[in-house]
């Protein structure tokens, strides 16, 4: 494969010893004397690379198909494509985005169980064969618009302990699954496997165990009816930051034994997943500027709150809000906390503060209450872990533009990506520190998965 240049990715190299936080500070300093202090992101593509290594260390049998809906920034998609990841697309536009950067159709799963007929035809015309379904009506649409499709039956799960539940909208029950398999047989359609999604923000890893067990039942049904069942898609629900109750490895430590039990290495089953926030959440930090401020005296607010010991509360208005990047508060149940760009003085008092977005809507509140020192118009706040379900769903309501994104990557990370792109695989060394991004980690480039190779030293992308 040919090498590629950083111009293709439109990022800035981090000088040795510098971090993404240093770039944030640099960007802020550049506009310190200007009135144009627009909100902006700094995104570390090297963080995405580290997540890729971490994935294969924790889930060596599972090929990631990145959920494009989570963050469809072209630089993110290009980075993951260069690493050999697959892609979970939910629409014609997402398929076009991925294919326009050279991803072959076999590395795409059209993972939307309810598709417009014209978009099914688009998938067919562009070679995308893998797609999900969960109803008889969808089967009939596929039979008409894409009869050569490789279909994956999405089953419902118990997602009652997830932050964002999905089975209320998608998924077939075990009883319905048998009927759908029989109907697919009548329509001469090809069913190749089963998918599920335990919900975004999963808080109970045992949910995966039950879902994998249910998938095994549906596999057996399909095999009994004569289908060649060889694909299991375990969906998403993996955390992308460390500020969560349930850590990534706590989930994978439960998933791996379940996979070995119900879909052992010698079963010939290919296993994929649809991580989204896992890859991008921690890579993005958002910087917002205080554009207005209101001081509310205690007697004005009518508050009897003993915490308002300083006699006032503060309202800050910043230049991004819930109609922009912070839509994650409404749509993704996110709870965000500001980090001050300036270090407060040790003896500086704190006040009860609220933080508001720039629009004229009273709904546009980012933080209801947070204790921090008094700030001024022109000061900056930082919000970490802002890569998932933020920029992808942001609007320009009230004419406020989406923040610019400045991508960065260290030279060792870039060199490693070059090596992967050019050589296709790297030989693993013992227990490397992922944070140093060594130029040696195990994997095979390309999408073909070889289930028989199950040792932790083997990585198949």
TrEMBL record:
Q: Where is the Orn/DAP/Arg decarboxylase 2 C-terminal domain?
A: 40-387
Q: What class of enzyme is it?
A: lyase
Name any cofactors this protein relies on.
Answer: pyridoxal 5'-phosphate
Q: What biological-process terms (Gene Ontology) are attached?
A: cell population proliferation; kidney development; positive regulation of cell population proliferation; putrescine biosynthetic process from arginine, via ornithine; regulation of protein catabolic process; response to virus
Q: What GO CC annotations are associated with the protein? A: cytosol
Catalytic activity of the protein: L-ornithine + H(+) = putrescine + CO2
Q: Which residues form the active site?
A: 360 (proton donor)
Function, please? Answer: Catalyzes the first and rate-limiting step of polyamine biosynthesis that converts ornithine into putrescine, which is the precursor for the polyamines, spermidine and spermine. Polyamines are essential for cell proliferation and are implicated in cellular processes, ranging from DNA replication to apoptosis.
* Family of this protein: Belongs to the Orn/Lys/Arg decarboxylase class-II family.
Q: What is this protein called?
A: ornithine decarboxylase
According to its UniProt entry, this protein's organism is Terrapene triunguis
Upper classification of the source organism reads: Eukaryota, Metazoa, Chordata, Craniata, Vertebrata
Whichever gene encodes this chain, its name is ODC1
